[in-house]
Amino acid sequence: MFHVGHERSPLPPARPGATAQSAPSAPSAPEAVRTGQGSGAGGAKQRDAFFDNAKFLAIALVVVGHAWRPVIDDSRAVLAAYNFVYAFHMPAFIIVSGYFSRSFDMRPGRVRRLVTGVLVPYLIFETAYSLFRKAADSPDHPVSLLDPWYLTWFLIALFVWRLTTPLWKTLRRPLPIALGIALLASASPDIGNDLDLQRVLQLLPFFVLGLCLRPEHFERVRQRGARLLSVPVAAAALVFAYWSGPRMNFEWFYHNSSGQELGVPWWIGVAMNLAMFACSLVLSACFFAWVPRRHMWFTALGAGTLYAYLLHGFLVQASRIFGWYDAFPWITTPAGIVVLTIGAAALAAVLCSSPVRRTFRFAMEPRMDWLFKRDAAEAARQRTGGPAGSAGTAESAESAGAARTAETAGSR
Is residue 14 one of the residues assigned to a domain? Predict the structure, then answer.
């Protein structure tokens, strides 16, 4: 059903004497959704509310899931909710990342934005997290840019996935190939920890699926029938999560270990990963079905999910290292878990806010014009008043949107 399409290049600017019939039309729906923007009054750009809502809700689930982790041994209900959320929030993030990577190619402008929007934040925060851990409780913890620690794995994974985008766009059936690679990785315990390659390969099919999706696919899951069907499906998944919680190793949801490393034969690891791929797809569809399409109070926060993703990890690690949960035993009570959940969601909202984004923009979205050569073709288009400025804005929003989906993925 899915295939990778090749998008047409932007139309040239209209000639001064062109008639109305020959003038370029407004962006089509697929193009507007691809960049996360559409035409507004006076030519202003407007972000797509659906994807901003999806990104914020997903990052809120990430923060809540990390807040739940220390108490899952004290409550079977929290363990069930934890497993349920981890079954889809990471795949949903990666699907959106792939969707916003569909137009990526090796043009200099897009490579620059990939470096400054993904690779540089990875280098900064991998170093910062490692130094934080060395200072907090592990003086011997190495600072290694090849062995991602904690949340930073998603950035290096996104960097690798996006670099391979042109390859996937040339294949006739990219999704089955990506799934085959993921299943082979799940049966290969000797892959090692460099670049967290086990997780990069196991989660690759979700990124490739995002590359294959089109706006009409998201429209299908948001139809009334799909939304109604998603309710009993999600309820059944929650019941199953409650039943299987004590019987299942929740480390399957991290996708960073082979089957043998989790104590099962290789073929069970392959079967388990295939089943989890199907489960994650279904629950991701249920999630997208209920994401609001209209502008909500939290819609604007969807532009800052990368900030919440990378910054909340310091608080999560501090809570575990310094025993904050042990200092408040009531947190394991039902009322305490409710307070914990609301507080974690509120923290996600704060970390996505404009003041936080302005403060940390130097690390998340650095301007590094000094590092790159000037693109002569783009400079020429800007001098002649061509569409380079608006195209550059759209591409920048697209790259930033993909990076900010990191928002979303869980880790130990």
Answer: no
